[in-house]
Design brief:
Strand content: 15-25%
Helix content: 25-40%
Bound molecules: nicotinamide-adenine-dinucleotide
Largest sheet: 6 strands, parallel
CATH class of the largest domain: Alpha Beta
Shape: elongated
Strand order of the largest sheet: 5-4-1-9-10-11
Number of domains: 2
Number of strands: 11
Oligomer: single chain
Number of helices: 8
Amino acid sequence: MFEPIREQIKDFRKIVFVTGAGISQESGIPTFRGKDGLWRNYDAMQLATIDAFYQNPKLVWEWYNERRKNIIAAEPNFGHIAITELEKYAEVVVVTQNIDGLHQKSGSSRVLELHGSILKIKCTVCDFREEILTEFSENPPYCKCGNLLRPEVVWFGEPLPQDVWQESIKHINQCDLMVIAGTSLVVSPANILPIYAKQNKAFLIEVNPKDTEMSSEMDLVIRDTSANALPKFLSLFKEK
Ligand code: NAD
């Protein structure tokens, strides 16, 4: 599977992983597209918006409460674990679109969360923020200041946290290998990260059972799931 790069592997010193919902699919967390993208007949992509939240905060909170419960119970899979173990052999940075915290739970030390975290909440108006690992009795929940609380995630149409974005670009400009795993690369602006890496002459590998918008830009495409493919990728480093 990774045979074409066996000889090159010793040259890769800094690796940036760009991950998306697909890497957590084998931990039992549904993705947003395909057959997984429905919750009680609602389209996940339409629920993850600020408009949906203000139209029906109770419904959006119900969805997030259910997802958070599932995520807290989930465990990292062989894909997450392989990325964590790779830190023994190379400099590794994970830039993730996921909000599930599974890279951190697996033990990865440098994780940049582009889309925030389902394990955090913030006030829609004041500066209040909190980590949240339990259920709310109140739905929708309100802040002490009287305004609605929301999950600290980036919804479709919202800007990314600029400090996390800048930090991601810095690492991408320095990497010599980018591995893009479990993302459809249709969500902007995360989908331009491979272009930055390519401009910088990094080698690009895609791990995804399906074609993506950018498959043709990749130097190597692995058509397999991340829990199958990434441990094999790790073994190349162990052998070198
Ligand atoms: P996406 O749903 O658009 O695409 C998922 C991709 O993963 C697809 O290309 C699919 O072919 C691939 N895939 C499915 N199973 C896989 C597997 N086992 N191994 C490897 N690849 C697999 O997800 P996206 O690109 O991350 O973008 C959607 C948005 O949804 C992001 O903003 C993300 O934050 C959010 N989201 C996050 C989670 C999570 O935190 N786990 C879950 C759902 C959605």
